[in-house]
Design a protein that fits this description.
CATH superfamily: Tetratricopeptide repeat domain
Number of domains: 1
Distance between the termini: 14 Å
CATH architecture: Alpha Horseshoe
Helix content: over 70%
Order of helices and strands: HHHHHHHHHH
Structural class: mainly alpha
Number of helices: 10
Length: about 160
């Protein structure tokens, strides 16, 4: 079982990932809209920027509203099917709700997009662990640790 501190670190890492992705990929549409003036609340709700929805999903997930997070991540994915961060995060939210099959599916798709992302392997390993599949979890934790993920390294060090 994962300790509370590992789960807490995982939530913090997810939030940091959301912020980093949002800062790394500013929207051209958002820049054009800012030049025209402030958006109305209706325009914001109709945003075509996948990062807008990703950020909303990350905020909901951070505060434990995984149902809403899944909806927002889904909107980000619909706008940008290659948004691996949204896929990963949606998978984590499904895992938090106990839908481990869907969680593993989404996270695995994110891994296919970014096979060198240790956080994704750690997230899938955590999901496997929650699902009671310790052998698969350990495989993913080892892969994540090999890719430099500190949470996976700490978990493996404590599992010895």
């Amino acid at each position: 079982m994962i300790s509370t501190s590992a789960s807490g670190r995982f939530a913090v890492v997810l939030l940091i990932l959301a912020v980093a992705l949002a800062l790394a990929a500013p929207s051209v549409a958002a820049d054009k809209a800012a030049a025209k003036g402030p958006k109305s609340p209706v325009a914001a709700a109709e945003s075509r920027d996948p990062n807008f929805w990703f950020q909303k999903g990350a905020l909901c997930a951070t505060y434990g509203n995984n149902q809403a997070a899944i909806r927002y991540f889904g909107r980000a994915i619909a706008l940008d099917p290659g948004h691996s961060g949204a896929l990963f995060s949606q998978g984590v939210s499904y895992g938090q709700l106990g839908n481990y099959t869907r969680a593993v599916s989404d996270i695995s798709r994110a891994i296919e997009m970014e096979p060198q992302n240790g956080l994704y392997y750690y997230g899938r390993g955590r999901t496997y662990l929650l699902a009671g599949e310790k052998d698969r979890a350990m495989q993913d934790f080892r892969k994540a640790a090999d890719l430099g993920d500190e949470d996976a390294q700490a978990y493996l060090a404590g599992a010895r």
